[in-house]
Amino acid sequence: MTISPHRPSTASSDRDPKEYSYKRPISQIIRERLDRENIPYLANDSIAEYINASEREQLKQEIEEKLQSLFDSMIIDTSNDHNTRETAHRVAKMYVDEVFKGRYHPMPKVTDFPNAKELDEIYTLGPITVRSACSHHFVPIVGHAWVGIIPSDRVIGISKFNRIVDWVLSRPHIQEEAAVMVADIIEKLIQPKGLAFVIKAQHMCMSWRGVKEPETKMINSIVRGAFRSDPHAKKEFFDLIRAHGFNDHR
Ligand SMILES: [Zn+2]
């Protein structure tokens, strides 16, 4: 019997092949990469730029295994229970590709255009459906958001606001930080003269558990540029979004 000193060659990859040494979980490989490059990976950070599609698949597999051991620890007989037999698989897929896709999948493409007609009036959009999960309890946050813009020289298609909100909110979040993240992305894309962003949402960690209060909603607003410096612009924004279904008393 001969023993070859050579390992079989690995598939080509744009990553350093030394990263894929034996038995290290893919999450560890990715975390070490992020640490080396000093990239934060808090719950509401996107790490999509630092992982590729095949690593995302491996990550789902690893998360599925960890969820399965969670269910084992919860003493749920998943091998005999037809309802939960595939739950670890379903939840891993749901986390990575759906409810937390804003961490693992890149931002949808947003093309900006010149503001050819030099429009500088306020426009608002909403309600935009907000679906997220709270970082503290991993239970849903659901609600609506409204955007107000006083354009400068760049504009984007109006549906792009919905896509940006969906992408950013599809991570475990704290509502205040989510609002800042959305506002920062819009500001970077089009540098409007004025930017306002409001989220009103219900937190299941308050209605399903804890104080079990289903009526309380959290509202937070961000006003920048002309909406901050000009009280008339700010008032016009809130008047307009009230016409779009926003109300601040219920
Ligand atoms: Zn919570």
Tell me briefly what this model is.
The protein is of the alpha+beta class.
What descriptors fit this protein?
9 helices, 250 residues, alpha+beta, 2 domains, GTP Cyclohydrolase I, Chain A, domain 1, binds zinc ion
Overview of this structure, please?
A hairpin with a 5-residue loop joins strand 2 and strand 3 (140-150). Helix content is 39%, strand content 20%. The termini are far apart. It is globular. With 250 residues, the chain is of the alpha+beta class. The relative contact order is 0.11. The protein has a 5-stranded mixed beta sheet with strand order 5-2-3-6-7, sandwiched between helices. Helix 2 (53-73) crosses helix 3 and helix 5 (159-169) packs across helix 6 (175-190). The protein has 2 domains: 17-104, GTP Cyclohydrolase I, Chain A, domain 1 (Orthogonal Bundle), CATH 1.10.286; 112-243, GTP Cyclohydrolase I, domain 2 (2-Layer Sandwich). Zinc ion is lined by residues 134, 136-137, 203, 205.
